[in-house]
Amino acid sequence: MALSGQMKADVEFKAPADKVFEFYTLTPYHMTKTSPKYVQSIDLLEGQWGKDGCVYNWNFMLVTPRDEGSVLHWTLEYEKLNANVEDPKAMLHGLVDTSTDVDAQLTQQANTQSSPQL
Description:
- The protein contains three helices and five strands, in the order E-H-H-E-E-E-E-H.
- By secondary structure, the chain is of the alpha+beta class.
- The chain has one domain (about 5-110): START domain (Alpha-D-Glucose-1,6-Bisphosphate, Chain A, domain 4), CATH 3.30.530.20.
- A three-stranded antiparallel beta sheet has the order 1-5-4, covered by helices on one side. Strands 2-3 form a two-stranded antiparallel sheet.
């Protein structure tokens, strides 16, 4: 059993790629509101949220635009303390679930903004 590895998952979004990218790079702290079951906090280590040079716990993310919506590609790299520790499948599952929550919020926001005002 390897002590380090990599797992990947793709999540299809109805929301456009620019909104998904913006959410995860500029306002990741909203994850605590969109998916409180999985995310209790996200720590800003240096700088200001969404500003060049800020440091927080997102390592890499790729969002691919599609004709309708986008696809978010998660890559989770990990290192285990010893061979008895299971691979972090639950963490990858949690990322996929929280992504679904984020897509629902972004899609709702887009629908609200595009609806005519009375």
